[in-house]
């Protein structure tokens, strides 16, 4: 029987594995860590005294691959969010607060209404971002967008920083354009914010593992792939430590691991080699009644505050400048922003700081050019991961699409 092996149980690997299993393939997933999820996981943290996500991952209502994946694994109701696109912000410098309420359709008439757009911005400011939609591969955002006024500071810079996890001025205009084409340019119904409830694992990981089990797929956790025997025409064997696992030429292998791991396994591979950090802070305190589920913060260390029934979580993107700072000092600094933004007078509660030093590849043109395609020089070996050439920056949507692409190639190979 032809078999499909998926190395890595992050979102890209689970996406590939569930697609393969849904088409009747015999699937084995092999993961180094003792748990699935990769950078999208939840766990009990003793210092915090509760379950936290390793980070806060926002998805949008128009993320096609996200919703296809959740439907496939039986978790289509696992995301929560407002019925219309709404984004609340606070500027800590003057304590000004506002909520953006874009209209649902593709014609953005909301930008012509002062009460619905960013305070201090003008209609023409928004139109200056249109050239990003057709930017070339080498252009930087800073080369195309000259605006540094209220719209840039209070919306576009934080939005692009969150999407690209790289300082926007230096980031790929083409990647920014891809994000805009699938969100702001399509109208509010395509970018209603969606957050996993109650945790990332409950939404994205646990249902996928249950689905794979229902399809008789095997999931081997805590098993490290040490090497791949690569012949001239195919990947021939997997080195799992105790013994080599032979691969028949008609078997399929999907490698869904971080780029530095893939590079170790395939030395000739060209892959991104410059990365950006993300810092997440978690505070064990229910958010005050009436605060937004997600709040954008301008002028502070905190950038996005996510409010849950049992905790308040904060994300700081492009966090290379702070990632090496003392953890308690970081928690204190971020809590000061949270307290001001949410009007909290209580002392800092139990907390945890989660640092991801290599959270994503740098979303620059140079790094985008290093992203490989899913198809490799070996007919039975395929790549998946948000760092592969998806046309998007490193996002959940990109990771899931990469898994779909790799699975489609693997299925074609299995059918030969």
Provide a brief overview of the structure:
By secondary structure, this protein is of the alpha/beta class. The protein has helices at 11-22, 64-72, 123-127, 141-144, 150-164, 173-182, 200-214, 259-265, 327-342, 365-368, 396-414, and strands at residues 3-7, 26-30, 42-45, 50-53, 58-60, 79-80, 87-91, 96-100, 193-196, 218-220, 227-230, 235-239, 244-246, 252-255, 275-283, 294-298, 304-307, 312-316, 351-361, 381-383. The strands form five sheets. A seven-stranded mixed sheet has the order 8-7-16-17-18-15-19, sandwiched between helices. A five-stranded parallel sheet has the order 10-2-1-14-20. A three-stranded antiparallel sheet has the order 5-9-6.
**What portion of residues belong to β-strands?**
15-25%
The biggest beta sheet reads: 7 strands, mixed
Q: Total number of helical segments? A: 11
Q: Level of helix content?
A: 25-40%
Structural notes for this entry:
It contains eleven helices and 20 strands. With 416 residues, it is an alpha/beta fold. The radius of gyration is 22 Å and the shape is globular. The mean pLDDT is 96.
What are the defining features of this structure?
416 residues; Polyamine Oxidase, Chain A, domain 2; FAD/NAD(P)-binding domain; 11 helices; 3 domains; alpha/beta; seven-stranded mixed sheet; five-stranded parallel sheet
């Amino acid at each position: 029987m032809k078999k499909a092996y998926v190395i890595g149980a992050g979102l890209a690997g689970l996406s590939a594995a569930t697609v393969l299993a849904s088409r009747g393939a015999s699937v084995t997933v092999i993961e180094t860590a003792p748990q699935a999820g990769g950078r999208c996981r939840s766990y009990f943290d003793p210092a915090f005294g509760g379950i936290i996500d390793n980070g806060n991952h926002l998805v949008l209502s128009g993320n096609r691959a996200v919703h296809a994946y959740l439907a496939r694994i039986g978790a289509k109701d696992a995301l929560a969010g407002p019925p219309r696109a709404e984004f609340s912000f606070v500027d800590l410098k003057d304590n000004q607060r506002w909520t953006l309420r874009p209209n649902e359709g593709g014609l953005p008439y909301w930008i012509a209404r002062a009460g619905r757009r960013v305070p201090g911005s003008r209609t023409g400011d928004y139109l200056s971002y249109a050239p990003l939609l057709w930017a070339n591969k080498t252009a930087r955002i800073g080369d195309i967008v000259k605006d540094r006024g209220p719209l840039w500071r209070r919306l576009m810079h934080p939005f692009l920083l969150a999407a690209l996890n790289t300082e926007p001025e230096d980031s790929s205009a083409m990647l920014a354009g891809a994000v805009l084409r699938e969100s702001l340019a399509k109208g509010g119904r395509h970018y209603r914010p969606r957050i996993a409830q109650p945790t990332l694992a409950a939404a994205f990981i646990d249902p996928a593992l249950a689905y794979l089990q229902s399809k008789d797929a095997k999931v081997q956790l805590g098993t490290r792939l040490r090497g791949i025997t690569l012949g001239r025409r195919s990947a021939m064997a997997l080195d799992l430590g105790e013994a080599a696992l032979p691969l028949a030429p008609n078997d399929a292998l999907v490698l869904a691991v971080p780029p530095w791991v893939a590079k170790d396994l395939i030395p000739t591979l060209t892959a991104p080699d410059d990365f950006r950090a993300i810092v997440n802070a978690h505070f064990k305190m229910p958010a005050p009644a009436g605060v937004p589920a997600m709040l954008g913060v301008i002028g502070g260390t905190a950038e996005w505050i996510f409010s849950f029934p049992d905790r308040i979580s904060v994300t700081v993107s492009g966090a290379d400048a702070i990632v090496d700072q003392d953890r308690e000092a970081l928690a204190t600094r971020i809590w000061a922003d949270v307290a001001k933004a949410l009007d909290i007078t209580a002392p800092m509660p139990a907390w945890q700081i989660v640092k991801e030093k290599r959270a994503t590849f740098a979303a620059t043109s140079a790094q985008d050019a290093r992203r490989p395609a899913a198809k490799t020089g070996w007919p039975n070996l395929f790549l998946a991961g948000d760092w592969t050439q998806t046309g998007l920056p490193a996002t959940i949507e990109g990771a899931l699409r990469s898994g779909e692409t790799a699975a489609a190639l693997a299925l074609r190979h299995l059918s030969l």
